[in-house]
Design brief:
By secondary structure, the protein is mainly beta. It has one helix and eleven strands, in the order αβββββββββββ. The longest helix has 12 residues.
């Protein structure tokens, strides 16, 4: 019952104050008509509505904007077999000419691969066993894969 006594005056007085957030950390940036505001440390959320005023604790919701997000296909490339010994295959869902780069974990370029057609076989017998990063760039987007070469 004590909770309701304290919450009721808060609801009634909330229409007189601007929206504020109390948190342990956060920042607000404004530039060229664009505002960014974030906070950290709000694990508890609750919403109270008295018909005229809505009070939400735990999230900043002063200006909600819903935007459409273009979903990317997650299956642009298939790499198999992985782990491998001497060869792996890159399969792409289109036949565009694309370049793939194989780097070791130190960032050294080990191999440049020209992808043409739907499948491309990559021979890596000259590369020592280890873990490598394969980067395939398509339409200014990087697709990154981990390649494991065994002996």
């Amino acid at each position: 019952m004590k909770k309701r006594i304290w919450i009721l005056p808060l609801i009634l007085s909330s229409s007189y104050f601007s929206q504020e957030v109390i948190s342990c950390a956060g920042k607000e940036y404004n530039s060229n008509g664009i505002a960014l505001s974030w906070t950290i440390g709000e694990p508890v959320t609750s919403t109270i509505n008295n018909g005229n005023t809505i009070l939400t604790q735990g999230f900043q919701q002063s200006n909600l904007a819903i935007t459409a997000v273009k979903e990317e296909s997650l299956n642009l490339y298939k790499i198999y077999p992985n782990p491998t010994r001497n060869r792996f295959t890159i399969e792409q869902n289109n036949s565009s000419n694309t370049v793939a780069l194989l780097h070791n974990l130190e960032g050294k370029l080990m191999k440049t691969i020209q992808l043409s057609g739907v499948t491309t076989s990559v021979y890596i017998e000259e590369i020592p066993a280890g873990v490598y990063i394969l980067t395939i760039t398509n339409e200014n987007k990087n697709n990154i894969f981990k390649i494991i070469k065994n002996n």
